[in-house]
Design goal:
Length: 173
């Protein structure tokens, strides 16, 4: 019998990842298996599981809610693979973040956004997460704007510029 872990390891690309996400479907137990791979396995499995999690989040965001504390804790670990950071922050853009996790998410996204060595995707997704949190915490808008302006100065890549324009417009409304 092939395990989910085996399927993840043998996956060859986007079609295979989409197939696994479809197999998970609405199943909370299957999603829990995926989270187990994401949280506790070797690098390649964790990296691919992160990708599948982001695909599932697009279709079944409610499956992620019980796992958000573990995902946020994982996001805060030092030396985290880029794929994990990218996919966790990507997912957090579209999910309701419970109040008890908002501070930790906010702090980590500020760290990601302020780090010029961080990837463009992680920084861009962090901008959106912070802008969403600023709806509940308007006092953080100034710091977000300052960090976005720094990012535009330091690294005006198309991804940073595009996301910065959208986020600044959101923050000014």
């Amino acid at each position: 019998m092939t395990t989910l872990r085996d399927r993840i390891l043998n996956a060859g690309g986007k079609p295979d990842m989409a197939s696994i996400a479809t197999w998970i479907g609405h199943s909370a137990p299957r999603f829990a298996q995926l989270m187990e791979c994401f949280l506790h396995d070797e690098y390649r499995v964790v990296q691919r599981a992160a990708w599948i999690i982001s695909l599932v989040a697009d279709e079944q965001p409610s499956l992620l809610q019980p796992h958000l504390p573990a995902m946020v804790a994982r996001m805060q670990e030092a030396g985290l693979p880029v794929a994990v950071k990218r996919n966790v922050v990507r997912v957090l853009q579209v999910l309701h973040i419970p109040e008890d996790l908002q501070g930790a998410v906010m702090e980590q996204c500020f760290i990601f956004l302020a780090d010029p060595q961080e990837t463009v995707a992680v920084r861009a997704f962090s901008m959106t997460v912070l802008a969403n949190l600023a709806k509940e915490y308007p006092e953080i808008k100034g710091e977000i704007v300052m960090l976005i302006e720094d990012a535009l100065e330091q690294e005006p890549t198309p991804g940073i510029v595009s996301r910065a324009k959208k986020v600044l417009k959101l923050l000014n409304n």
